[in-house]
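Sequence in, structure out.
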Amino acid sequence: MVTSKKSESVPSAHLNRRAERSRQTILTTAFELLSEGGVTSFTVDEVARRSGVAKTTIYRHWPTREALVIDACSRMIAEQETPDTGSLEDDITAILAEIAKLLPTANWSFVLPSIVDAAERNPEFAEIHSRIQRGHAAPLREVLQRAIDRGELSAHADVSTAVAALLGPLFYRRWFSREPIDGQFVKAIIKRVIASL
């Protein structure tokens, strides 16, 4: 009986690994497609063609196109490290410099406008968009709260407004004015926001 159980667990473990590999392949392909054409041009047929995974397998993991898109978009919610330099200005500079570096090149920056568009009509996309934005804002919220806790900022400082004032100009330049997001611009934003707190 013991031998029988062992022999059954090996194929089961192998199948689980294979299923997980397929799942990761599908998600990677889906995110690549989203990066190229956004949500509107995304199709399960194209995911199947590019990934080499059968549509039936894809639908086994994700019952709808939207479910796959939302799962693929969750890759945009990357955990960012929160710096702790001992200085609010240096912490914010490190965070914004990293975002400024990623905005022109990272795949998520090409996908995000189509998520914003889809979020206007679909509550599921609205939720994923909110999660993405909370992910971008989390390190700034943490360093601002830490500065309040150590008395560097007033206890009445409006953290939400400060986060919007810090991130907003970067996103504006990336998707609206398309002006460069250089170090001088980032420093100017930080100086103004800190002076207003």
